[in-house]
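Continuing the series of single-chain predictions for the mutant panel. This is the parent chain; the variants come on the following pages.
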Amino acid sequence: MGAAARLTRGTLDRVAGGRLAELPFTVELWDGSTIPARLTPEIGVVRVKRRAVAHLLHEPNQLGLVRAFVSGDVELDGDVEALLAQRARYDDIVLGPLDVARVVAAALALGGRSVLRAPRPPACELRPRGRRHSLSRDRTVVRHHYDVSNDFYRRLLGPTMVYSCAYFASEEDTLEAAQERKLEVICRKLRLEPGERLLDIGCGWGSLLLHAAERHGVRGVGITLSEEQAALARRRVRDAGLSDRIEIRIADYREIYDGPYDKIASVGMVEHVGLAQLDTYARTIAGLVRPGGLILNHGIGRMFSEQAGEKSLIQRYVFPDGELPPLARVLGALQGAGLEPRDVESLREHYALTLRRWVANLTSERDAIVAEVGEERERVWRLYMIGSALAFDDADISVFQVLAARPGAPHGLPLARGSVPLAADRV
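Parent structure:
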């Protein structure tokens, strides 16, 4: 065992009761020395460059690990999902003052003076400025995520260009079939009728509006803060010959004043609202729908996990300022805004399936994706999607469709929930 490996293994054995030394992978250090795995089955080989020591010394937390991985200073030759599935083994480890001192001493011995200077964070990391959830800051964080490249999202999401949980009738469904089913399920839950006016909050690349106009004859307005999304959505509307029935706006939900709408859909957008703004969001959409109108809110909700910290992958690289509201908080906000919740459906298992289909697309299109957006972003999305799939598997998080009605006129919903067709052979 080489010098770097001996020092690293010795330090791991002496901190946190030796639990950090119980690794399910072999570690290969920059000097060629290795630390063999102690757990079986062995997942693979983790290759560590010297600069990774500096990342972890200056940010001894998830952010340091993520920076090292995204920058390529830590690489895994093996199954990333199998590695992330081991995370619970180390979740409760807390380093005491003596542990921290030993780690710092080892880092200095391993890296020398070079580790005293913090490495530059990866270029795709974002620390937004300004008042949280102000209009300008929300534009910045949304565009950080969505204005990456429309071609990247086409390769990742497939031809439906739907960036939210699909609806599977079986695990053998294709992603495209499951996404088309999801769009139809939303339209049927909203009981869309020809000529009705539909508002799609967070419309993405326009897929729901196109489906609703073509299959159900509605007129629609879609809003997004992403200029890239809006440009492609408008082109898709034009190519479909629906420019007289669908309008795409670059706008925040707080900037819509031309209600009332007959129906409102908000799919995968409430996660960007923020807990402090949730009541404002609910009051705003309640004021935009007519009496008797329906609202469908589709969003990820926190179950048994904590909100992602400021120094997490999600907050710095994926969805800055994003917060996952518990279902009870969403229902309370809707009721507080005078809306009547009518139906709730959990799609937790569906999102795990969706994410793994996206990971398969990412893997098969990796070369083209790296050429389009770079290796850093490819690593971010790989880590984010695999980690999210595991979180849905474990019920740390879930995703809920909530259907609500505005009182004051008949809502038109049937007595029996089952009369809204959800089975694959009826969609």
